[in-house]
Amino acid sequence: RDYMMIDGIPVEINDEKNLLELIRKAGIKLPTFCYHSELSIYGACRMCMVENEWGGLDAACSTPPKAGMSIKTNTERLQKYRKMILELLLANHCRDCTTCNNNGKCKLQDLAMRYNISRVRFPNTASEPDVDDSSLCITRDRSKCILCGDCVRVCSEVQNVGAIDFAYRGSKMTISTVFDKPIAESDCVGCGQCALACPTGAIVVKDDTRKLWKDIYDKNTRVSVQIAPAVRVALGKELGLNDGENAIGKIVAALRRMGFDDIFDTSTGADLTVLEESAELLKRIKEGKNDMPLFTSCCPAWVNYCEKFYPELLPHVSTCRSPMEMFAAVIKEEYSTSSKRLVHVAVMPCTAKKFEAAREEFKVNGVPNVDYVISTQELIQMIKESGIIFSDLEPEAIDMPFGTYTGAGVIFGVTGGVTEAVLRRVVSDKSATSFRSLAYTGVRGMKGVKEASVMYGDRKLRIAVVSGLKNASDLIEKIKSGEHYDLVEVMACPGGCINGGGQPFVQSEEKEKRGKGLYSADKLCNIKSSEENPLMMTLYKGALKGRVHELLHVDYAA
Ligand code: HC1
Ligand code: SF4
């Protein structure tokens, strides 16, 4: 076994990539702005410097651990050094913390507090706000940028989009789109991963809560809401629960107290998607045309990416609307005779859903089926504003008439979930053992690329599951060079919606807990397969009769 000394204590080295990981394993919260385990090392912020045994300084993020090494993480010199960096950053940063969208979530604010910075010795050189509000998904304010480059690296390395990059040099250095165009006119697909990675308020989720509050308070408006699968396992920690704990009952209770009139679960919409998407898959297989593989279509950032970077693949993208849009079309139909103005809200882990909701394809007479999308982060904000003590809430049930959903719908929120749900629908053996074995085909787990094969009659279905758009584009290149798949599930965010751009930021281990939370929620559902949801039959015989194509499908290739 290999050991090294950290602050005089021996720490075992396992497979830690760098000192930073080992130091954190040893229980020391070493500060950093620019280190993310999933991204390349940039080493620019210098906050993670440690002192080696010869008195030299090493950046912990870019130094590999070595047996016999000895370092100190907290000396007088390091304290001074870190304070100096923080003061320099603060001198150049706006200090309107109390009105910043990122107040309470900002790393700069957090570290300034941790290092007890009560005054800044340098003159204030902060620039005026420089806000780009053009995107429906994210808002940028360059004056709050600390040039850590996290957004640039996530956008190019994880998402293969490269919508933003460093521009200019020296004191003029900034993060910019090509030709400094508004972000909405760039290649940005709205995934929000940059906002998730941004340590300050320089990139944040677009805030739609103000207009929503207005509608909630308006007596002549009936506000219905649907809650996405991944939201239930991601807001607990911020509101006093454990990571990954399924909080759906408390969310329903909170929404009811806030004044929402009808509360539903997007998992019901996901059941509709499963039925439509499996039918489409089987039809395509039967017809044997040149339109395989079938790509899933529920992730709007993936659809945007496909439209922008691989338009020739659009005929391969499922014509199924996302669960959010299928369900919204059905809900708006159900309440179309209401005497009140109808507003339908979707609580989503995703920023790109804001864009999807505004797409022309999902409007009827110019009115969107989903009027607002509120991210998990915005929901947390609204719950806090309401003064609700979330952890004390008694869980409540969702409303009828759309009160039933299956485990298949719930697992949509984690990478591989859509595939597993579709497989539950298409396999002929519906026993518990058969469903359990589907879980072990390779579709589960947090890996960015997964493969599985399942027998359908005497045909072997080949399936790929990818999350993160870089993984998607690598797979597309493989397909283009001749690899065959029948079904490809793509989720733009690594890990799927549980790690959506609108969720509170967490480290990798916590993402896994969110995934596990959804699989536990599935276990609690007494119906596991979408076609067994009794509501489906009612819908297909009722509201959807003769209107399946109109309400549940969309042709992105058109
Ligand atoms: Fe998702 Fe979906 S799973 S896209 O990740 O298909 O956002 O949670 O609601 O629509 O159901 C997101 C999550 C979500 C849709 C479903
Ligand atoms: Fe890049 Fe996604 Fe951010 Fe757009 S939202 S800039 S695509 S990371």
**Termini gap:** 61 Å
Helix content: 25-40%
What class do helices, strands and sheet pairing give? Answer: alpha/beta
> Which range does the strand content fall in?
15-25%
List of distinct ligands in this structure = 2 iron/2 sulfur/5 carbonyl/2 water inorganic cluster, iron/sulfur cluster
Overall residue-averaged pLDDT value? 95
Q: Give the total of beta strands.
A: 20
Give the spatial strand order of the biggest sheet: 2-1-5-3-4
Shape: globular
Question: Counting H and I runs of at least 4 residues, what is the number of helices?
Answer: 19
Task: Characterize the largest beta sheet: strand count, sense, and whether it forms a barrel.
Answer: 5 strands, mixed
Runs in which pLDDT lies below 50 for 5 or more consecutive residues are none
Radius of gyration using CA atoms only: 24 Å
Characterization of this structure:
- It is built from 19 helices and 20 strands.
- With 558 residues, the protein is an alpha/beta fold.
- Strands 2-1-5-3-4 form a five-stranded mixed beta sheet, covered by helices on one side. A four-stranded parallel beta sheet has the order 12-11-14-17, with helices on both faces.
- The N and C termini lie far apart (61 Å).
- The relative contact order is 0.12.
- The mean pLDDT is 95.
Short description:
The protein has 558 residues and is α/β, with parallel strands linked by helices. It has helices at residues 19-25, 76-91, 107-114, 150-158, 193-197, 209-217, 248-258, 266-287, 300-309, 323-334, 352-358, 376-386, 407-410, 417-426, 432-439, 469-480, 508-524, 534-541, 548-552; strands spanning 2-6, 9-13, 49-52, 57-59, 70-72, 131-132, 138-141, 165-167, 174-176, 203-205, 221-227, 262-265, 294-295, 341-348, 363-364, 367-368, 372-375, 449-456, 459-467, 487-491. The site of iron/sulfur cluster has 14 residues, from helix 4 and helix 5.
